[in-house]
Structures are given as C-alpha cells and as structure tokens.
Amino acid sequence: MEKRANAANTRGLRGDEALAQVEGLYAKQKKAEDNAAAARRKQANTERELLRVRGELEELRERFDLVQEEAAALTELNARIETAKHAVDLLS
C-alpha cells in the first residue's frame, strides 16, 4: 500500500513538474509572440518613415535642380556682363 502511495505521489510530482514546464513553455511562446508583434510594428513604422524620407529626398532633389538651373543662368549672365564691360572699356 505504501508503495502505491509513493508511486502516486511521484506521479503527482511529475504531473506538477510537467504542468510547470508547460506553463513555462506557454510563457516563452507568449513572449516570443509579443516580441514578434513589436518587431512587426517597428518594421511598419520604419517603412512609413522610409517613404516619408524618400519623398523629402525627391523634393530636395527637385529644389536642387532648380537652384542649379538658376546658378547656370546667373553664370551666363555674369559672362555677358563681363563681355559688355569689356566692350564699353574698348569704346572708351
């Protein structure tokens, strides 16, 4: 009878250990799922930020192109002014 009681107690302990192990595994799985969800949110935020930055970069490129065109026009105008000054100097 005592052997049966000890065997039952041993099975009970093993059952408690198994339950604790299952609970521990469940907690690990839950933490992994939470981490995965956080990573997906972070990725989505990063992708939105990337799109915003790309749009800003495109706008800056367009502005830079306009500034370059204006600089080229001013350079040409300066050359014409220098030519005109030289012509005036020759006539004076």
Strand content: under 5%
Major pleated sheet: none
* Count of β-strands: 0
String of helices and strands: H
* End-to-end Cα distance: 133 Å
What does this structure look like?
With 92 residues, this protein is mostly helical. Helices cover 98% and strands 0% of the residues. The protein is rod-shaped, with a radius of gyration of 39 Å. The protein starts with a helix and ends with a helix. The model has no long low-confidence stretch (mean pLDDT 89).
Write the layout of secondary structure elements.
Layout (H helix, E strand, L loop, with lengths): L1 H90 L1
List keywords for this structure.
92 residues
Structure, briefly:
This protein is mostly helical and 92 residues long. It is 98% helix and 0% strand.
